[in-house]
UniProtKB/TrEMBL annotation:
It is found in: Cytoplasm; Nucleus. This is A-kinase anchoring protein 7. GO terms for cellular component: cytosol; nucleus. Its main location: cytoplasm. One of its GO terms (biological process) is regulation of protein kinase A signaling.
Amino acid sequence: MGCSAFYLYVAGSRPTHVGVVFLTVYIFLLICIYKINVLPSPSLPLVTSTFEIYFKKRRKRTTRRKTEEDDQTKKKKQDQPNYFISLPITNPEITRGIQAVQDIVVQKDHRLSQAMIRYGSLHVTLLVMHLSNEEEVGTAVRALLESKDAVEELLQGKHLDLSFQGIDDFRNQVVFVKFAASHHTAALTEISETMKKIFQEKGILAGENRAFKPHLTFMKLSKSPELRKQVKKIDPHLYENFKSHYFGDETLYRLDLCSMLKKKQPNGYYHCESSITVGEKNGAEPDDAELVSLSKKLVENAVLKAVQQYLEETQTKNRQTDGSPVKTEEAASGNKNEK
């Protein structure tokens, strides 16, 4: 029996005992070694070349598959969102309530201090997008400005007060404050979809495949890679006393185009490329930008007044030193008093 024929015989047989299998393979190897060293056979190179071709093809398929996976991973990383439309949270009542929850959670598990969102960064995300360069950032800014009229039309000239009540989570990885009323969620969803359409019409890769669920995140494990090695899940019992707590209302007044990666502002809020104001703000209460502008004007007026006073005092001293009319009048007045 030839080596190749014996190989086919072994491959086609179905032994029922493991020992028989090993014995058969062992005999086959001995015959092959014998034929290689003693009896030259034209069938052996055929078997060898068949194995070589098989392994080469397998290596090629594995390499191609790995290259495709690397390309997909690279593309996925390049397309990850790096900008978003933010609804900033500015109501002190909401921020104080969230800070109270954060403090209690940290007291129970100090490791979670690394997972906390600082009060200056609190916001609701309406839309995420990937902007590859400054040119696309400029396009996104124009899309944001153009979306103002569409959002105003949805609001119909009225302001939208958003109530926040209760706490929920995403797979115990992200903890957030919920909206109290479903119609608020529906209104924000409509605004988000409208803006998404405007951005996409301008060629901006905006939006996600999953359903939009507006929420106010204040704690997430992904903030710290080191923390995720220690804590796999956030225990809901840490904040169970606040699961139905009312945090307050936030008026939809401003929407910002923010960067996820650029350096944050001194107050902790994200780097903002552009903003639009929508709806009506309650009363005549100034927003943060108006307060900053007013403060600058007060400082400028105070500095100007101080400079004018300094110049007047300096001019008066110079006149007294140079024998100016001011000095002469004072001397004359002094002589009259002596008489």
